[in-house]
């Protein structure tokens, strides 16, 4: 079978990767949804494991450990091995011996769109492996494939050098051209959460509805979810989204971020169904309905 092997790849700088912060797939995945979040069936062997590093890709014709073993000899410390095996589970692509190699070479981890074996041994080694599940079939057959070409792993296009992030929530991929943008958005998110935490420490949950929402707006926190009166002590069914009230009343004054009245919202749909379940609320000016959640 034919082979295509590329030994050198362009990696992002360590500073660029570090700008993404801690390897938490959920936080980063919020900014690459739709193109960078892998199939949730790909999970870590240990849910406490985290990893982050540039992708070193392997595309297999059929599940096989031969070519991935060769790829590991070409990798640099901090790299993440990404094996695209088409989700096939009949034969392993990764095993305990390869985990030992990964630890010795200082690799960040491995993502396998397929199966691996030696679960307990890999966990003892502490080498982060994310895969679809176990299989009791070993094979080193060298059936052909490619190293360091764009691959599809877990439904996501991964190119050599893209940043792969794994944690207990799954695996996400940040295209190398978008690292700076994602890092900027993550920092903005951290600042919003810090302001929100400060408001909560000031006793936000004990304030009446209108005052409570204005406190969030004054703190610069974009209010993006509905607030249930039963959970937050609200008044007259007041809810907030983007600085606007949307309650059970047929009329409600809408406020902009400065707190000034801007317009009157007519015939706003109830934010909660009669059963009290969370639902969708149409908010004037919103491009699409947003699912509600509790603060």
Question: Main traits of this protein?
Answer:
elongated; 25% helix; three-stranded parallel sheet; 8 helices; alpha/beta; 295 residues; nine-stranded mixed sheet; disordered C terminus
Question: What does it look like?
Answer:
It contains eight helices and 20 strands. With 295 residues, it is an alpha/beta fold. The strands form six sheets. Strands 1, 2, 3, 4, 6, 8, 10, 13 and 14 form a nine-stranded mixed beta sheet that branches. The chain has a three-stranded parallel beta sheet with strand order 5-7-9. Strands 11-12 form a two-stranded antiparallel ribbon. A hairpin with an 8-residue loop joins strand 19 and strand 20. The longest helix is centred in the middle third of the chain and has 23 residues. The protein is elongated. The C terminus is likely disordered.
In short:
This protein is of the alpha/beta class and 295 residues long.
């Amino acid at each position: 079978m034919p082979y295509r092997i590329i030994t050198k790849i362009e990696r992002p700088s360590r500073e660029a990767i570090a700008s993404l912060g801690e390897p938490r797939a959920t936080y980063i995945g919020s900014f690459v949804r739709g193109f960078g979040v892998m199939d949730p069936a790909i999970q870590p062997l240990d849910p406490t494991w985290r990893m982050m590093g540039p992708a070193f890709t392997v595309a297999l014709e059929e599940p096989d450990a031969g070519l991935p073993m060769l790829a590991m000899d070409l990798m640099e410390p901090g790299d993440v091995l990404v094996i695209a095996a088409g989700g096939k589970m009949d034969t392993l692509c990764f095993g305990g011996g390869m985990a030992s190699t990964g630890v010795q070479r200082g690799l960040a981890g491995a993502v396998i769109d397929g199966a691996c074996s030696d679960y307990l041994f890999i966990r003892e080694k502490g080498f982060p492996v994310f895969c679809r599940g176990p299989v009791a079939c070993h094979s080193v057959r060298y059936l052909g494939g490619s190293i360091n070409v764009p691959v599809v792993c877990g439904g996501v296009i991964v190119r050599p050098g893209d940043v792969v992030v794994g944690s207990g929530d799954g695996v996400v991929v940040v295209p190398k051209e978008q690292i700076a943008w994602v890092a900027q958005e993550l920092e903005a998110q951290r600042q919003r959460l810090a302001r929100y935490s400060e408001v909560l420490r000031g006793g936000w949950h004990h304030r009446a509805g209108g005052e409570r929402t204005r406190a969030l707006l004054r703190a610069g926190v974009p209010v993006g979810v509905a607030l249930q009166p039963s959970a937050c002590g609200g008044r007259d069914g007041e809810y907030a989204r983007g600085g606007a009230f949307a309650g059970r009343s047929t009329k409600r004054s809408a406020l902009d971020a400065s707190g000034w009245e801007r317009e009157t919202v007519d015939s706003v749909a109830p934010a909660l169904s009669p059963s009290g379940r969370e639902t969708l609320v149409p908010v004037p000016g919103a491009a699409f309905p947003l699912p509600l959640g509790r603060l």
